[in-house]
Design goal:
By secondary structure, the protein is an alpha/beta fold. It is built from 12 helices and 13 strands. Helix 3 packs antiparallel against helix 10 and helix 4 runs parallel beside helix 10 (about 325-360). The protein is globular, with a radius of gyration of 25 Å.
Length: about 475
């Protein structure tokens, strides 16, 4: 007996086919900038979006970004199960809220807070928000002290190196604080202790020390900066606190450099931020901000609401936020533990140092850093080569690799570099494949009459008119 097929949608009187192909159902034109008059079948809508996203770069081959691009399937599953949880709704999702506070305590212990059990901190959407919260607390503490002394509060400034992430420019602009950017000089590509002190005065709300510059992967000398500020205060100068921007390094140094003193072991460090979605190994959308004690975070900045149920304290620039990333962070802390994080970060560093040494041995390149601090290194093209770093970046992009080329900030804009970020999932084998492709393009580049690309054509110049890498300028 023949099988009866349902009528087709286009002609109810004509028998249909048992399979209605997705692409045969897709309309000739899908609106891109206006809502369509009629909706699409969910399979068709999915396929249209999916196919367009195939034109994006491969995240695993993106050596510009600091952001996590690989995670365990169990973490992904937990995130999928938690996409509907609102991080701010602590009364409705008390377990999620509790996981956030457990993460805060774990980080407080990792960073040697005086009393991790009562540490104060919160999750954020990323380090940009966390930095702004840290800066805002510095400003408010400075204002309180100035008012108590009967002094004016209308000219606050913040001292930092020109290599800071663009979120600090945003902080200064949004919250009306003068940014005192210390320029690079010679082979000093980040903030030094003497330079930090020289830029401080009675209106300085704080000094920002970066643990892991995104320009070259180097640590700023936090302990020396704090010691120099101690001497300044002891000599009758201003008593200036320090915020450590540990967007990347605060999740590397505790495991790979445990004896390095950069955290709350230094009395002058008032607050620290990190990106859970960088070397915290969580997918994008998570940062952390912690203060050494309650005195470092003015109570007036903590607001309270009761319309979600219960008495809810909130200190953040955002309100509703997904809880999935916080849950994934807690999973990673349980899954890896201290030794697991050490092995992951040390492997990244081993890949970075081996890869940087191999690139240096190729001949036409000179290392600026070698990946022995953050697993990140920068290198430049030797003088006299007929190609630029921008040519190298473009040639590698043809092979699928995203390696950023950019110029350094004031006063070393003459330095143009390439930077490679080694993250969890970028293995020794992938590094070897990158070197193979670099070797493959070098003969063509060396045969050029001269450089073909310059900074004006670089595709990695994001944010505030300065070079970038995730969050704006540093660490895509």
């Amino acid at each position: 007996m023949p099988i009866a097929h349902p009528p087709s949608e286009s002609d109810p009187d004509r028998p249909g086919v048992p399979v209605n192909p997705v692409f045969a159902r897709e309309p000739v034109e899908i609106p891109r900038f206006t809502l369509p008059d009629d909706g699409l079948d969910p399979d068709v809508a999915y396929q249209a979006v999916h196919d367009e996203l195939m034109l994006d770069g491969n995240a695993r081959l993106n050596l510009a970004t600091f952001v996590t691009t690989w995670g365990e399937p169990q973490a992904r599953r937990l995130m999928e199960e938690s996409f509907d949880k609102n991080m701010i709704d602590k009364d409705e999702y008390p377990r999620t809220a509790d996981l956030e506070q457990r993460c805060v305590r774990m980080l407080a212990a990792l960073w040697h807070a005086p009393d991790p059990a009562t540490a104060i901190g919160c999750s954020t959407t990323g380090s940009s928000e966390a930095c702004m919260l840290g800066g805002l607390a510095l400003k408010r503490r400075w204002q309180q002290a100035r008012r108590a002394a009967g002094r004016p509060t209308d000219r606050p400034n913040i001292v930092m190196g020109a290599n800071v992430q663009v979120c600090w420019d945003k902080f200064a602009s949004y919250f009306e604080v003068e940014p005192r950017l210390v320029p690079m000089e010679g082979n000093r590509f980040h903030l030094g202790a003497a330079e930090a002190v020289a830029h401080c005065d009675e209106n300085t709300i704080g000094v920002v020390a970066v643990l892991g510059s995104t320009f070259d992967g180097s640590y700023e000398p936090v302990e020396q900066i704090c010691a120099a500020l101690d001497e300044l205060a002891a000599g009758g100068g201003p008593d200036v606190p320090v915020h450590v921007d540990g967007a990347s390094g605060a999740m590397v140094a505790p495991f790979c450099d445990p004896d390095l003193r950069w955290d709350f072991r230094l009395q002058r460090v008032a607050s620290i931020n990190t990106s859970g979605h960088k070397y915290g190994l969580v997918y994008p959308g998570l940062g952390w901000a912690l203060w050494r004690d309650t005195a470092a975070l003015p109570e007036e900045l903590v607001l309270r609401v009761n319309y979600l149920g219960g008495d809810l304290p909130t200190f953040a620039l955002n309100f509703s936020r997904p809880g999935a990333q916080v849950i994934a962070q807690y999973y990673n802390f349980l899954r890896l533990g201290h030794d697991g994080y050490r092995r992951v970060q040390q492997t990244c560093r081993d890949v970075a140092t081996r890869l940087s040494a191999t690139i240096a041995d190729l001949g036409p390149f000179r290392l600026i850093t070698d990946g022995s601090q953050l697993p990140v290194f920068a290198f430049t093209v030797d003088d006299g080569q007929p190609f630029s770093v921008f040519d190298v970046s473009g040639a590698l992009r043809e092979q699928g690799w995203l390696v950023p080329a950019y110029t350094f900030p004031a006063d070393r804009t003459d330095v143009a570099a390439l930077r490679i970020v080694v993250r969890n999932g970028f293995s020794h084998d992938l590094a070897d494949l990158l070197v193979d492709d670099l070797r493959r393009v070098l003969p063509r580049l060396s045969a050029q009459a001269g450089p073909q690309r310059g900074p004006e054509g670089a595709s990695f110049a994001h944010g505030a008119g300065r070079p970038t890498g995730d969050d704006g300028r540093h660490g895509s």
